[in-house]
Amino acid sequence: MADQDQNQANQNNNQEPSFGLQRTYIKDVSLEMPNAPQIFLEQEGPTVEVSINVGGQRLADTIFESTVTATVTTRVEDKVLYLIEATQAGIFEAANIPAEQLDPLLGIVCPTMLYPYLRANVADLINRTSLPPLHLTEVNFQSLYEQRVQQLAEQQQGQASQQDSGIVLPPGVTRQ
User: Fold this and answer.
1) Close Cβ partners of 71 (under 8 Å, ≥ 6 residues apart)
2) How many CA atoms lie within 13 Å of 78's alpha carbon, on the beta-carbon side?
3) Which residues of the chain have pLDDT under 50?
4) Which of 124, 130, 140, 152 is the most exposed place for a label (fewest CB within 10 A)?
5) pTM for this one?
6) What's the distance, CA 35 to chain centroid?
7) Is 158 helix (H, G, I), strand (E, B) or coil?
């Protein structure tokens, strides 16, 4: 009887949701300074553009890779001072997570956990150029996730209305 209770307890424990970060790593990094050394002589202040993208893939049944990519383009007038593209990745284990919670977990929680590593790596890379430091601002990954979900819903609605009309439009062409 005690063995049956123990087996039942073990089975219940195996069904409990679990989530954890297994590993972080720099998946890709590039730094370009196409106008060096002449650009160092410029006196005008630089402008900075930052773009953040999130990605990921399933590696095994309960193992996922999540990525956060930052592209930082800094210009002085129309000349590129530096261009950095860095992808921070992580391996996560997510077991027994309900399907409706898995996508938000991978689209919000994982990038939020990886972003501090990405920020530190980008700051270190810029520091090695001997240029003034640049620290990426905080990112609200929940807001980015909600925007992506809304865009996908709008795309699906647009495709459904095109199919309902019986007219198939080529990709990139919208109905006026």
Assistant:
1) 49, 50, 51, 53, 83, 84, 85
2) 0
3) 168-170, 173-176
4) 130
5) 0.78
6) 29
7) helix
**pLDDT for the residue numbered 169:** 46
Phi, psi of 102, deg, nearest 5: -70, -45
Question: How many Å apart are CA 24 and CA 172, to the nearest integer?
Answer: 37
The span from the CA of 25 to the CA of 55, in Å, is 14
Token readout for 159 is 């495709």
Amino acid letter at 111? P
Contact 168, 162 (CB under 8 A): yes
Task: Report the DSSP beta bridge partners of residue 72.
Answer: 50, 84
The two structure tokens encoding residue 62 = 């309960």
pLDDT at 157: 84
Taking the CA of residue 21 as centre, how many other CA atoms within 13 Å lie in the half-sphere pointing to its CB? 14
The pLDDT, as a whole number, for residue 174 is 46
Cβ-contact 143, 47 below 8 angstroms:
no
Amino acid at 112: T
Sign of the dihedral defined by the CA atoms of residues 168, 169, 174, 176, in that order: negative
Question: What is the model's pLDDT at position 5?
Answer: 53
